[in-house]
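Design a sequence for this backbone.
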């Protein structure tokens, strides 16, 4: 009897599964609406600055181009870290706290992203398919950094651990979101494409990027964050655990 009880506690399988794309989108939209002011307040300053550095400062000047590129990268990672932190603590913190936290995690996030990029590119150079596998395995590294304060390779390995066993499920849900973002991008781009902006393609591109940062990026962050949270719950629930309290 005791042996059977131990076996049941050790080998029990989880009934939890990842939510469907429809469920993820519904929950994401709800969170997005409820926290829109905070998300918008976080993205507005970095996004406008990226717009400025990415367009107005690049005028046939190598030094300005280098400076604006560096500042754009810094602002982008600041924005990313602040958004993920705001999503994690949705409804509990203000805009200022999110932005301050984003500054603290700027360089750790940059380092994790560099490792992520190198590994994925190496996989693509080798046989393409490994690159796609790595892309999904390590996709949640940024969330691991913000949620669990694990940086470097620890963040990547933790992300891989979460995805293993659910690779196709994660791949399908991320692919669905990418398709949706692409459609939104096309919808935004189409009307703006009729405007010539005096033939200045940089201005056109910068405006598209600004709109995406302001409205699409927070939504994508929420969607990915929900997927990460659900994946963590599923993984935790599916891990084999031994009940050490059982006594003979």
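Sequence:
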């Amino acid at each position: 009897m005791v042996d059977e009880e131990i076996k049941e506690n050790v080998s029990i399988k989880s009934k939890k599964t990842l939510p469907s794309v429809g469920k993820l989108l519904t929950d994401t939209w709800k969170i997005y609406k409820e926290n829109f002011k905070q998300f918008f307040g976080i993205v507005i300053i970095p996004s406008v600055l990226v717009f400025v550095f990415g367009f107005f400062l690049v005028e046939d000047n190598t030094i300005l181009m280098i400076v604006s590129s560096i500042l754009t990268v810094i602002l982008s990672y600041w924005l990313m870290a602040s958004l993920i932190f705001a999503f994690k603590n949705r409804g509990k913190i203000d805009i200022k706290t999110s932005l301050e936290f984003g500054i603290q995690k700027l360089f750790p996030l940059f380092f994790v992203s560099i490792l992520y990029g190198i590994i994925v590119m190496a996989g693509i150079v080798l046989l393409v398919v490994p690159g796609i596998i790595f892309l999904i395995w390590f996709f949640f590294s940024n969330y691991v950094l913000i949620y669990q304060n694990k940086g470097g390779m620890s963040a990547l390995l933790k992300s891989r651990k979460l995805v293993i066993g659910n690779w196709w499920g994660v791949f399908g849900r991320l692919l669905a979101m990418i398709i949706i973002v692409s459609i939104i991008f096309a919808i935004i781009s189409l009307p703006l494409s009729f405007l010539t902006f005096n033939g200045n393609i940089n201005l056109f591109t910068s405006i598209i990027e600004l709109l995406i940062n302001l409205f699409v990026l927070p939504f994508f962050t929420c969607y990915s964050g929900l997927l990460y949270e659900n994946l963590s719950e599923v993984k935790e629930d599916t891990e084999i655990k031994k009940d050490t309290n059982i006594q003979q």
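The CA atoms of residues 195 and 204 lie 8 Å apart.
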